[in-house]
Amino acid sequence: MSEAAPKPILEVENLGIDYKIGTEWKTAIRDVSFTIDRQETFGLVGESGCGKTTVAMAIMHYLPRNGRVSSGSIRLAGRDLVDLSPNELRDVRVNQISMVYQNPSTALNPSIRIGAQVADVFELMGVPKDERSQRVIDILAKVQIADPARVVGRYPHQLSGGMLQRVVIAMAIASEPTLLVLDEPTTGLDATVEAEVLDLVSNLRDDIGTSVLYISHSLAVIRRMCDRVGVLYAGRLMAEGAAEAVFTDPRHPYTVGLLRSLPSSEIGRDEATLDTIPGFLPPLGADIKGCVYADRCAIAEDICRDVEPDLKPLTGNRFSRCHFPDRAPDLPRAVAAEPPVRQTETEPLVEISNVSKTFIQDGHPVYALNGIDLTIHVGETVALVGESGSGKTTLAKVLLGIDAPDEGSVITLSGEELAAEVRDRGQEDVGAVQMVFQNPDSALNRRHSVRRIIGRAVRLLRGVGRKPSDERTRDLLAEVRMGMEYYNAKPRHLSGGLKQRVAIARAFAGSPALVVCDEPTSALDVSVQAAIINLLAELQAEENVAYLFISHDLNVVRYLADRVAVMYLGRLMEVGPAKRVFGGPHHPYTEALLSAAPDLQEGARIRLEGEIPSASEPPPGCMFQTRCPRKIGEICETIEPDLVETEAGYSIRCHIPVAELGRLQATRV
Amino acid sequence: MSRYVLRRIGLALITLLLLSMLVFIGTQLLPGDVARRVLGPFATAEAVEALNARLGTDRPLVVQYVDWVGSALQGDLGQSITFSRPVTELLGRALVNSAKLATVAFVIVVPLALAGGVVAALRRGKLTDRIITVGGLSATVIPEFVSGIVLIIVFAIILDWFPSTATPPEGAGFLTQVHSLILPAIPLVLVLFGYIARITRAGVIEAIDADYTRTAILKGLPRGRVIRRDVLRNALLPTIAVIASQVGYLIGGLVVVEVLFSYQGIGRLIFDASQKKDFPLLAGGVLVIGVAFQVSMLLADLAYSWLNPRIRVGAKS
Ligand SMILES: Nc1ncnc2c1ncn2[C@@H]1O[C@H](COP(=O)(O)OP(=O)(O)OP(=O)(O)O)[C@@H](O)[C@H]1O
Ligand code: SF4
Ligand code: SF4
Ligand SMILES: [Mg+2]
User: ipTM of this predicted complex?
Assistant: First the structure.
C-alpha cells in the first residue's frame, strides 16, 4: 500500500466571484483553482485590478458587501470555508487563518493602545488574563520590535509604518495559524523597511511552519518570497508553477511581457528601450469568448479569439493557459528596441550651492536639507535616492520655488540666480523648471478636460492666446503619444498611465530645461511604468531636457539615470555617475540601499537596523552613524565627514577611504 | 495640548469681540437716532434729546462702544428700556428657562438620534435604514411652528395630556416642570433628530468600512465587541462635535417655540425686545447667546480632543 500524498492546506477549486455593480452581477474571478501545501508559500502576482485582493478576501470570508462567491469551493485543511456558521468562522479566524494587508497605518484602531489590540488575540485564544501581557511582549519581541514594553503603551499614530506592520504581523502569527494571507504587506514601505519586513516574514514562516499565500504586484518580491506562483490576469489564472521556472523560463505571453517591462540591471536606457504590454485590462465582467489576453497578445491567432485555452500542464511542473506556450519566449517586442539618440553635452544647467532648508515645527527646527551642492547638466538625468524622510521631495520643492530655502542658499539656472519663490520668478524661469508628481490623480484637476489642463499651462507658461495654445496642446498630446480622442476627456476617464502622460505633457508646456520627476511611476503597473519611462527617455532626447528623477526603485534609477545623488537626513552622502555609484565601492548607506532592493536575482542582504532618525534631532558626527553597519568607531560618532571629491565627478561622505570600502565590500558573499 | 486649548480660547475671544462690534453697530447705531427710534416720530425734540442723554447715545460712538463693552465685562449690560430693569437680571432668568427647555430637548434627541443613526448604519440599505433616514429627513424639514401648532392642538387641546403653555405654575416641582416642557421640546427634537442621526450613520458606516474594523473582525473578535469597541468608539467621536454645533440652531428654534408656547426664555425675550425696540436688551441678549454658543463649541472641541488620542497624546516621539 503506497502512502497517500499529504493533503494540501488550502484548496481553491473553480472559484468564481462576482461583484454587483448597479443591478448587474459582473464576474471578477473566473474559475480559479490552486492549492497550497503545508509550509509552502504560494504567490499570486498580477497587475492592479486583476483580482488578487478579491481572491484573498474570499478566502478570508470577507468579500465586500456587493461581492459573492458564485461558484467553486475553498477548503482549509479539508474544511469548506464558504459555508461556515458565524461561530465556526470566528473559530477559524482565531486559530487557523490570519491576514496582513497593505497600508498598516489604517489597519489598527486609532483610539486603542497597541498592547490592548495585540492582547485581544491572546484573549480569543483563551490565554489566561495574567499571562497575556507577557505574551504580548514576547510576540512583539518576536517580530523584532525594539523595546516592546514601551510600544504596548503607544497609540498607532505614534509608530512608523514599518513598526505598525510588525505589530499587525505579530497579531497575525500569534496563534501560529495554519495559513497566513499577506496582501501587498510591504507596498508603500521604504525599500529598506520592506527588506526587513520580508526577512521577518520568511523567518517567522520557517519558525512556526505556516503556509503562506503571498500577494503582490511586484515580480521581484514574489520571486524572492515564494515557492510556487500563480499569475493572475482579468480574474483568470494564466500561468502557474515553481517560482524559479515561471520567472526564468516563462511560457505565457503575459508573463513574458511582464518580465520584459521590468528594467534590469544589465541594460541601460542608451542600450535599449523597455518592452511594454500594449492595451488595457478588459473591463470587469467583459464577455470574452476566447483567451482573455488575446487583445494584447502579440502572437494571438484566430483560434485564440474563439476558443479559451485551458490551464495546461507543461514540462517542469508548470501550467500555462495558452494555445502556444512554446512560442511565448520568442514573443515579438511591442516597441522597437532601438533607443532614442541623445545629444551629449556637459554644460551645467542648474547649480545648487549650499542649499539648506529648515522648517520650524512646534518651535523646534527640523533640518530637512543641509548644505546641498549639486549640479545638473543640460540634457542629463540625475537621480535622487534615499529613504523617505531623507529630504528628496523638499529639494524638489525648493528647486520649483514652492518652498524658499534658508538664507545663504543659491540656485542658478544657466548661470543666473533663480528667485527663491516661484511668484518672484519670471514666466520663462517658471516654464524652465517644471514637475511631474507621483500621483497624477491629485495633480490634475478632475473637473477640467485634458485640453483645458494642458492649454492653461501653455497659456500661462508661454503667454500666448487661445488659438496658438490649442495648437501647442495638440502637439503636446502627440508628443506624449496620446491620440486626439483624449482631447476633451476628463481625468476620471483616463487610466493611471494616461493621466501621468497628461501630467508630463503639462510639464512640457513651456519647453522646460529641467523637469523634476517625483516618483513618477511608483503608482503605476510595471507595463505602464515601462511605457512612461520610454516616453521620458524619448522626450529627453527630443527636447534635450534635464531630469531630476526622484525614485526609490533602484532598478529604474539604474536604467534611466546618468548620475545618482544619494541623500540621507538632508545630506548628500554620495554623488557620481550612475555606473560608478552602482558599481562600487559604495558609500555604506548606498550599499545598504542596494542590498535592500528586491531583485529578481537573489543575494546576501545587509540589514539596516532601526529607522531613519528624526530630522529635528540629527545625530552628532556622521548622520548615518546610528545605523551604519560599517561604522569604524568614535570618529563616526563625533566628527561629521565632508563630502570629498575622490575622483573626477564622484564625491563621497565617509571616514572610510574609498579603497578600504572597496576591500570591505568585495569580501561580501 | 495646552497650546491648542489656549489658541482655541483666544479664537473664541476674538470671535466674541467681533460679535460685540456687530451687535453694537446693528442695535445701537444703524438707523440713526436711538431715542428717536424708541420714542417714535411724534415725540418732541427735547424728549428725544433727554432720552439720548440718559442713554448716553449722544456721545461719540467709540466712547459708547468702549463704555458698553467695559460695563458688559463687569456684568452690566445696562437697563432695559421697556422693563426698566437691569438687562442682566432679565437675561439671567430667561437663560435659565431656555436652558431647561434645551436640556429636555437634548436629553430626548441625543440618545434617540444616536441609536437611530447606529441602527441605520448597521442595517445599511435595509428597510430599517430607509425608514430612519427618510423619516428623519422628512421631520427635519417641518418648520417648528407647524409641528408646534399641530402638537398643541392634538396633545394639549384635544387629548389634554400636556399643558399648552410651557411655563409651569410658580413653585412647581421638577416633574411638573419637565412635563410642561416635553411638548415644546418636540418640535426641536424633530428638527435635530434627522440631522444628528444622519451624521451618526455616516460616521458609523465609515468606521465599519475602515481597515481597523476589518482587522478586528479577521482576528475573530465577536461582532458585538467589534461594534462597541472599534466601530462606535471611533464613529461617535466626531459626532460629539456635530451635536454641540447644533446649539446654534437650537437658539434659533427656541425663538419660535418659546413664542408659540408662551415660555419666558431667552428666545422669547429677544423676540420681544426687537418688537419693542428695546435695544439694550436686544444687544445684551444677542451677546449672551454668542457667549453661550462659543462656550458650547469650545467644550465640544475640548471633549473631542481629549477623547482623541491623536490630539491628546501627540505624534511620534
Ligand atoms: N467592491 C467592489 N465592487 C465592484 N468591483 C470591485 C469591488 N472590489 C474590486 N472590484 C473590481 O474587481 C476587480 C479586481 O479587484 P481586486 O481589488 O481584487 O484587484 P487587485 O488585483 O487586488 O488589484 P490591486 O493590485 O490594485 O490591489 C477590479 O476590476 C476591481 O475594480
Ligand atoms: S492563447 Fe493566444 S492570445 Fe492567449 S496568450 Fe496564448 S497566444 Fe496569446
Ligand atoms: S562615516 Fe562612519 S558612520 Fe558614517 S558612513 Fe562612514 S563608516 Fe558609516
Ligand atoms: Mg489588491
Answer: 0.80
In tens, the pLDDT along B18-30 reads: 888 888 777 665 5
Does A420 fall in a domain? yes
More confident residue, A470 or B317: A470
The answer to whether the beta carbons of residues A25 and A19 sit under 8 Å apart is yes
- The enclosing domain of A658 has a CATH number of 3.40.50.300
* Per-position DSSP letters for A280-338, written without gaps between them: -PPPTT---SS-TTGGG-TT--HHHHHSPPP-EEETTTEEE--S-GGGGGGPPPSS--P
Compute and round to an integer the Cα radius of gyration of chain A: 26
Q: Ligand 4 mean position to B209 CA, how many Å? A: 16
In a domain, B293, yes or no: yes
Would you say residue A236 lies in a domain?
no
| b/e burial code for range A344-383 (CB count within 10 A of at least 16 → b) | eeeeebbbbeebbbbeeeeeeebbbbbbbebbbbbbbbbb
- Among A128, A149, A174, the domain boundary falls at A174
Which positions of chain A have pLDDT values less than 50? 1-2, 669
What is each CA distance from A636 to A460, A551, A584, A590, A663, in whole angstroms?
Answer: 50, 28, 21, 17, 19
Residue A157 and residue B215: Cβ atoms within 8 Å?
A: no
Torsion of CA A203, A204, A207, A209, to 10 degrees: -120
Answer whether B309 sits within 8 Å of A110, measured CB to CB: yes
Which residue segment(s) compose the domain that A263 sits in? 251-330
How does strand A179-183 pair with strand A364-377? Answer: unpaired
Reported as a single tens digit per residue, the pLDDT across B166-184 is 777 777 777 878 888 888 8
CATH number at residue B276: 1.10.3720.10
DSSP letters of B277-305?
T-HHHHHHHHHHHHHHHHHHHHHHHHHHH
Domain that holds residue B184: 87-316
B304 φψ region: left (φ > 0), alpha (ψ -120 to 50), beta (else): alpha
Same domain flag for A362 and A272: no
pLDDT of residue B316: 45
Specify the pLDDT at position A191: 82
Ligand 2: which residue has its CA nearest to atom 7? A300
Q: How far, in Å, CA of A589 to CA of A661, rounded?
A: 12
Checking if the pLDDT of B32 tops 60, the result is no
Q: Ligand nearest A566 Cα, by number?
A: 3
Looking at residue B29, its pLDDT comes to 56
Number of structural domains found in chain B: 1
Nearest to B105 by CA among B205, B16, B178, B199: B178
Q: CA-to-CA distance for A385 and A591, rounded, in angstroms?
A: 12
Q: What is the pLDDT of residue A322?
A: 95
The model's pTM: 0.83
The number of domains in chain A is 3
Span B43-89, pLDDT tens digits: 777 877 777 777 666 677 778 788 878 887 887 777 777 777 888 88
Q: Which three cell numbers stand for residue A366?
A: 527640523
Closest CA to A233 of A181, A287, A281: A281
Tell me which residues of chain B, numbers 213 to 232, contact chain A at a CB-CB cutoff of 8 Å.
214-223, 229-230
